Give the backbone structure.
Amino acid sequence: MGIAAQERQALCDLFTEVGPAAPTLCGGWQTKDLAAHLVVRERRPEAAGILLKPLADRLDRIQQDYAAKPWSDLVQQVRSGPPWYWPTRIGTLDELTNTAEFFIHHEDVRRAKPGWEPREPDKRRDAALWQIVSRMGKLLLRSSPVGIQLRTPSGRQTTAKHAANPVTVIGESGELLLYAYGRDETRLDFDGDPTAVDTVQSISRGL
């Protein structure tokens, strides 16, 4: 089973445990809203144009309709994945498209509760997440006016922003990925000039 599939199943197990009204880190969404988003994303072709306002408004209405469905049915739709004809039914495309999506949203639910702790390291999962953050870091952290290096405790390192006064952000691959995608509930260290560190901690991050 690929990392994306593992994270999908783990998230659905957590959905079942916490119910439809649990908090998430997704802009005020409850778990029912997050689950509806994941279903719409894999079952509605319009989801490809979510950044276009006319389609975004329509998708918001569709998502609200899905969120109103019985919780067990909605979770099962997330768990079972897209229909047979959807491109991400192919394992390699699933990994490419959904590894970050399901890892991040799994953590969006886990870390919305006080007292959360990072999961134990997993070499296979961490390697996959490192590949994503090292590939996407330049795009996700493009707004930084100072340089950014991303580094894991094991010594992996990549430059996410070439600029003066660089800051090194240090943490496990998953923590770095969550940070790059705009999450603040992370366990990271920042090494650099204090003013530059403050800048890096406050920049807009993500797509």
Strands lie at 148-151, 157-161, 167-170, 189-191.
